[in-house]
Amino acid sequence: MRWRGGQRGGGVEDRRGMSGGAVAGGGIGVIVLSLIGYFVFGIDPSTTQQVASQFGGASTSQEGKIGTPEDQAGQFVAIVGKNINDVWAAKIDGYTPPEPTVLYEQGTDTGCGFGQSAMGPFYCPADNTVYLDLGFWEEMETQLGASGADFARAYVLAHEIGHHVQTLTGASQRVERAQARASGEAEANQYSVGLELQADCYAGVWAANAASVSGGEVAVEQGDLEEGLQTASAIGDDNLQRRSGGQVNPDGFTHGTSAQRVEALRRGYQSGEPAACDRYTDF
Fold this sequence. Notes:
two-stranded antiparallel ribbon; alpha/beta; 10 helices
């Protein structure tokens, strides 16, 4: 994926180096299990945050390092994040970007409570902010079977900003109302799946338009889409349930199967238009 010549837009808040609460027990095993709980069972971030808050919150920070030559990961988020928002500004009249993406380690305060790395990346609608512990990328590759390519990582960021788009368009609010009317957890989860698949589709929309809005400075190149599709497959509900050692339980799906996530990302990429993603929250 081409991105190093792209523009930065000040869309990152660097909290790395701050001390914060960690998951009780620590270690990769806990992180992976918590990721599976988040992706497969759709654990409400606020619930996890309340538990994590018992182990301490973030304290004062040291200065972030974004902009230094050695901070490739921070620069990647700054450049790709700006490109994602530029695409949405071109696609949606009056688009307002989210607050700067927060990079942190272990744990940090958020508008939705206490956030911690075991939850994976998430968007908090209360403060319009994406929160990302960059260690998730390594966990995604080494523990969940996803790709470690740049586009796979960009797909994760684009998915989360897609949730911001859904807040602006009202899709998130429609899902909340539909879930309130649902007859049970299984039906409510179906609405969550639709929301997540639409965010995947939106990630594809961004990828299809990245080059045109950046003059080619940020662009998806040959083979990149396949890396993203590999990642979408790796984090499908059914695949993660199998990895956790349990049986596949469709009633517990909250993000969509591997096949559904692959199809949604591909649909957005092939169309390049947000309207192609409406089907996922058309209820």
